[in-house]
Design goal:
alpha+beta, 6-stranded mixed sheet, 5-stranded mixed sheet, 39% helix, binds [2(R,S)-2-sulfanylheptanoyl]-PHE-ALA, binds calcium ion, binds zinc ion
């Protein structure tokens, strides 16, 4: 048994079977995926419920990641690969920086930690407390949300404060809907494991989960970097309006162009409207797509 790329399998947080791109080295199989056209790799670690990053490489003796404590790593690894594939196949973007850099994830971060984040270098996932969240890498839209933050950091670079911050959060939610391509709910696969049918947020109905969906209801607060997880409901609703009007295939191209060409660090909601309108005009002219974007943002009170 020499070293090299291997194909393993495992069970995710929801008990779902999935294939894994692994790597055999010194008799152990690692969650270390060398199969993508990137300079780096997709690699997954565990913090073993500590807070030191990246922690320890996730490994298994027989390439079968089937134990309960491996489920979060299985999903972090598989969903990172799926999200990498989305950006590469849809836009030709090679990893979050467009330069094929490694995508690193750490699971089992902290104790009962009900969150996930991109720390500027890697993705980090808590296990949840079993009531509010199950392990957060168990939801593809959460993984896509976090990796989109990395894309945003290497493109628009939106500051994580007030309207630019809420726009930053919204772009992570909107792209997670593009990647998951299943529903307008956010986090449903990991949120409240004991209750079905709910989510942390909804793109189609932000008020269902306490978010505004119009500028008239913008929340001015110092909490949460100026309410970035609250006020994201406004651009999220505009995103829903856009997808419903022109379809996901056109919407994702308009959003990607706005994110990578026109938005900047201090772009606010009105700047986002303008960036998306310009992107729609660039890609489709001043036709129905342009009008749909204009209406999508007028509907939420952003001009
Ligand atoms: C360091 C703490 C703040 C980091 C916030 C990260 S980027 C974030 O926004 N995490 C998402 C996770 C998520 C994504 C999609 C769906 C469900 C949950 C998030 O929304 N976190 C909420 C719980 C929050 O921080 O308020
Ligand atoms: Ca979802
Ligand atoms: Zn976020």
């Amino acid at each position: 048994t020499d070293a090299g790329a291997a194909s393993g399998y495992g069970y995710g947080v929801l008990g779902d079977y999935k294939e894994l791109n692994t790597y055999l080295s010194n008799g152990s199989y690692f969650l270390y995926d060398v199969t993508n056209p990137m300079n780096g790799v997709i690699e997954t670690f565990t913090a073993e419920n500590g807070t030191y990053l990246p922690g320890y490489r996730s490994s298994d003796s027989n390439n079968a990641f089937t134990s309960g404590n491996q489920a979060a790593a299985v999903d972090a690894h598989a969903y990172a690969d799926q999200t990498y594939d989305y950006f590469y196949n849809t836009f030709g973007r090679n990893s979050y920086d467009g330069n094929g850099s490694s995508i690193r994830s750490t699971v089992h971060y902290g104790s009962n930690y009900n969150n996930a984040f991109w720390n500027g270098q890697q993705m980090v996932y808590g296990d949840g407390d079993g009531s509010t969240f199950a392990p957060l890498s168990g939801a593809l839209d959460i993984v896509a949300h976090e990796l989109t933050h990395a894309v945003t950091d290497y493109s628009a670079g939106l500051v994580y404060q007030d309207q630019p911050g809420a726009l930053n959060e919204s772009l992570s939610d909107v792209f997670s809907v593009f990647v998951e391509r299943e529903d307008y709910l956010l986090g449903e696969d990991a949120y409240t494991p004991r209750r079905s049918g709910d989510a942390l947020r909804s793109l189609s109905n932000p008020p269902a989960y306490g978010q505004p969906e119009h500028m008239d209801d913008y929340v001015y607060t110092n909490a949460d970097n100026g309410g970035v997880h609250t006020n994201s409901g406004i651009p999220n609703k505009a995103g829903y309006n856009t997808i419903e009007s022109i379809g996901v295939a056109k919407a994702e191209k308009i959003y990607y162009r706005a994110l990578t060409v026109y938005l900047g660090a201090y772009s606010n909601f009105s700047d986002a409207r303008a960036a998306l309108l310009q992107s729609a005009a660039d890609l489709y002219g001043n036709g129905s797509e342009y009008d749909a974007v204009a209406n999508a943002w007028s509907n939420v009170g952003v001009y």
